[in-house]
Amino acid sequence: MSGHQELDEDKRGTLDRALLWRLVRFARPHARQFxxxxxxxxxxxxxxxxxxxxxxxAIDGPVGAAIAAxxxxxxxxxxxxxxRELWWWAGAYLLVALxxxxxxxxxxxxxxxxGQLVVHDLRRRLYEHIQRLDVAWFDRRPTGGxxxxxxxxxxxxxxxxxxxxVTLSFDLVKIGALLVVLFWLDxxxxxxxxxxxxxxxxxxxxxxxxxxxxxxxxxxxxxESNGYLQEALQGIRVVQMFGRxxxxxxxxxxxxxxxxxxNVRTVLLFALFFPxxxxxxxxxxxxxxxFGGTRIAQGELSYGLFLQFWFYLAMLLDPIRELGERYNVxxxxxxxxxxxxxxxxxxxxxxxxxxxxDGPAPAPLSGPGHVRFEKVSFAYGSGPxxxxxxxxxxxxxxxxxxxxxxGSGKSTIVNxxxxxxxxxxxRILIDGVDLRELDARAWRARLGLVLQEDFLFAGTxxxxxxxxxxxxxxxxxxxxxxGSCSRELVERLPGGLDAPVAERGATxxxxxxxxxxxxxxxxxxxxxxxxxxxxxxxxxxxxxRIERATHSLLEHRxxxxxxxxxxTVRRAHQILVLHRGQLRERGSHATLLSLGGxxxxxxxxxxxxxxxxxxxxPLTSSPAR
Amino acid sequence: MARLWKFFGRFLRHKRPLFLxxxxxxxxxxxxxxxxxxxxxxxxxxxxxxxxEFLEGLFWMVLLIALVRGVFRFLQxxxxxxxxxxxxxxxxQDLFDQLTRLSFSFHDKSLSGDIASRLTSDVExxxxxxxxxxxxxAGALVxxxxxxFTLIGLSPWLTLSMLxxxxxxxxxxxxLTPRLHRHSTAVQEKxxxxxxxxxxxFGGIRVVxxxxxxxxxxxxxxxxxxxxxxxQLGFAxxxxxxxxxxxxxxxxxxxxxxxxxxxxxxxxxxxxxALFQFIDxxxxxxxxxxxxxxxxxxxxxxxxxxxxxxxxxGEQPEIRDPEQPTAPPRIQGALRFEQVEFRYPAAAxxxxxxxxxxxxxxxxxxxxGPTGAGKSTLLGLIGRLHxxxxxxxxxxxxxxxRLELAxxxxxxxxxxxxxxxFSETYRDNVQFGSPEPxxxxxxxxxxxxxxxAQEVARFPAGLDQxxxxxxxxxxxxxxxxxxxxxxxxxxxxxxxxDDCLSAVDTETEARLLENLRRAGSGRxxxxxxxxxxTVKHADEIxVIERGRISARGTHAQLLRSSDWYRETWRIQQAREExxxx
Lengths: 625, 581
Hints:
The complex is a heterodimer.
Chain A: H1 2-9, H2 17-27, H3 31-73, H4 80-132, H5 135-139, H6 143-185, H7 187-234, H8 236-241, H9 245-297, H10 303-344, H11 351-357, E1 371-379, E2 385-394, E3 399-403, H12 410-417, E4 425-430, E5 433-434, H13 440-445, E6 447-450, E7 459-460, H14 461-466, H15 474-483, H16 487-492, E8 500-501, H17 510-523, E9 528-532, H18 540-554, E10 558-562, H19 566-571, E11 574-579, E12 582-587, H20 589-595, H21 598-606
Parallel strand pairs in A: 3-10, 3-11, 6-9, 9-10
Antiparallel strand pairs in A: 1-2, 1-4, 4-5, 7-8, 11-12
Helix pairs in contact in A: 1-7, 3-4, 3-10, 4-6, 6-7, 6-10, 7-9, 7-10, 9-10, 15-17, 17-18
Chain B: H1 2-12, H2 15-46, H3 53-101, H4 104-109, H5 112-154, H6 156-203, H7 205-210, H8 214-267, H9 272-314, E1 335-342, E2 352-359, E3 364-368, H10 375-382, E4 390-395, E5 398-399, H11 405-410, E6 412-415, H12 426-431, H13 440-449, H14 453-458, H15 476-488, E7 494-498, H16 506-519, E8 524-528, E9 540-545, E10 548-553, H17 555-561, H18 563-580
Parallel strand pairs in B: 3-8, 3-9, 6-7, 7-8
Antiparallel strand pairs in B: 1-2, 1-4, 4-5, 9-10
Helix pairs in contact in B: 2-3, 2-5, 2-9, 3-5, 5-6, 5-9, 6-8, 6-9, 8-9, 13-15, 17-18
């Protein structure tokens, strides 16, 4: 799994202009930061140029003059004025170096600032956008990939704005400017450098391009060998029970040797790259000595200028060496950008989700909340119908229990009522208004939810119970704890209501989580309860508490319950029996039992005192631990 | 350091390239210094020279030396980095072998994702430090003295004054390190937090939307993202400082060259050529010095990685061959559990207690009971996935702990509950079970016995069909039947089926069980199951509840004697009927 994803992440982005402009638009609100960054870079560059200039000034100025004067004046030579002037040059150099300190600091700080501001913005927008998408969209995607979008993909865009765009374009400016300066200093010497610069750039690009391919191969082979390792560990019982340790070891050795040979290729490339670049650099330097030397001898070129030239050559070579690498960063960032824009371009298809983005104000919710399913059918995508012409009502104050085997369509009804999916045919009316015309969030705010997969968020118990709902007060929280029989549970936790809760509530038991989600639902004083009873077995004390909590949850409220407990179905005003997406029987517990049909059989199988595990999927049932 | 040196021993296994690689370092460095000296001396010769012929010779000489230097630098990288890669692979192989040796109790408490990442990043940390790291250090340790030696000969004072900015840099970076570390840790923490929030929200999108939490979750993310921004900026400031310190001290090295060198030039105690040597060697020495600092930064990480890897390699498998194994003539398949108790480490209550069962060769034992009652644990004791904490499990009257692991496990066919298969070809997965190579015909026969013949015939690539992620995805039932074929490939005396028919429909199940009984004449069968119909025909069925045998007998007897059995049977029959309707 992870291997595939990694490869996918590694896809090479195409450098297309439309994408680039789109990215630039994202950076636009922070244009000022980027202008500052360029300014700082320009200042750093100017100071970099100034240093060797001062060195040359000192050598051609006071030092050169002193040497000439000493030759001319002989013993009468008085070095003092020259020395004094030299001190001034040194002072200027010190000043430039110290200024350089400040601007070099700003260079990193400012550039990162610009990039990170864009990241922060983009991450926020992307996250909000993703959250607005249809539940169906999430159901089709692994969560891990989505998380990558708002974490490393966004980070790699920051890298692109800083290392990629700003530094790369400034490096190009630098290379051009240095060539001009070299030309201006001495065009004859510069000629060699100018002629060989394309060679250097060529080497840099070709090698780095090759290195990129080689690196991709290494990463793929690495993820293959890691994948095999993980697989072997996952199947360690089988490996040991079958005594095949040697066999898997050989297989792993095969993966490793493929990984090694891919690695050796990158080693070779890098071992060739650095010496090759260095040799061309030496060629440039040796040529300048060769031709510069003749002209120094003829007195046409000063030592100072030669040294300055030498410095600038060194300055020219750094950005060239980095060029290929920066280009690679840019490319992988483009791939990330494509993935991010792919998501930003996805629009929710459900009317209610679309409306959350913009559109006319939805119908207000003021009625008693009479729910009516009218010939509702549903199919996931182009798949077969999982619900066929389902008709029922939830009058205010009534409890409706849904009963049926796994896969009979119970959870689809819950999904539809919550507005996560829309019926493919038929409609759901709330006080006579189509659910699609209502504001989904206002509608859900009236509901109290206790879902099977319900989990608690990382935070405190109180945060989880309140969930930032205005309707929850200290009093209603108190009542909710009472009603859900979870006061004792909360008091037992270290810190009570302020006790920390781990991610997904992992530190609490299943029963405790169910009690707390009931308290959470109660705290909002909901008009309609949607309860998907948990099937997991809990100890009998908790079971009794959950039963009492269910009772107070359903009292005087409308409710739709996916029922697994006998006590719940007994209390329901109406029981709907689903079988293969159709409503087959309806009525009270007693009438349905006397009917001796589906319900009677389901009853025998499902509602017993002994909790029976229904899991039949070998992949989800955990081995004994 | 001693710990790291131990790992360096692995580098020493590749003596030739290692030795030659380290030999090239001083040669390349000395040639590099030589080029600077030659150009410097030529610069002095130029002044007022009427004949510049010597420049032509110098030009070619420098190019030639540079070429030789290039060849040595190439060889240096090639040999030394390659050695570090060999060592990486060796080490990974050793770790892998160690992991497959370790008992199940070790794997039970560690997460496989953790181990894989540890393997990769810890090995890489060590490789980086002892491979390229040591190469850079060696380079610096040759280059710096060589350059200093050359320069001190030219002007000791200037050399000493040049060292000051470098020392200042070293000190400055040292002082900054904790700050850099603090910020980078904070950034990592915040990024992990962001990823947790996204994980929670996207994974639990129903809860988020159901409670209308979109805004509050978005605000939460924004807050953490803003905190991340703050730490990023702090980190950037620290990095900016370190960048500024490095670059400025580089620039400041040229200040004494300008001032002290300039004064010496005026006094005629130094020539321009010497000044050039100072400048050029500064360029050449500075980056190796930076590399030294980089190495110092790698050291603590390499050390803790070495400790972790050492720990893993030092781990002893709990379940080992006995020192003096008994060698039974031929295993018949009689199985006995005698007063067996098993307790997971640090568990308050035993997972199994008072287990007494005996199974005659060729008989079938059924193990049933609620989830978590201890069925899988019981089955795991037969093949020594765990050893009992009290009592004994005996095969043909021999305590399984007295048998060689290979002998014991050779006699067993095990079908795990999670129906684990490798992402390899179908043939390889079946072959996995057999110690001897199987012919196509015998693979097909096994597949037929396991009731998979029809499906395999439909595979586009037949037996060579890749399965898993990169090939076809098998259904739960198909996986289970494949696992059975794999177990049958061993021609085991005892076949252990750990609830491995749950995803197979009852009809197929009945046929399969019939096949298994017929195929292994005289083969002992131990079958754990949720579905009671699976074990209906067993010679004996034990009901395990909370780690103890609560009832035992044949199907007919248990229907009378065990409430749990009777009730479960009734419910399951009701479900069958319902599904059939």
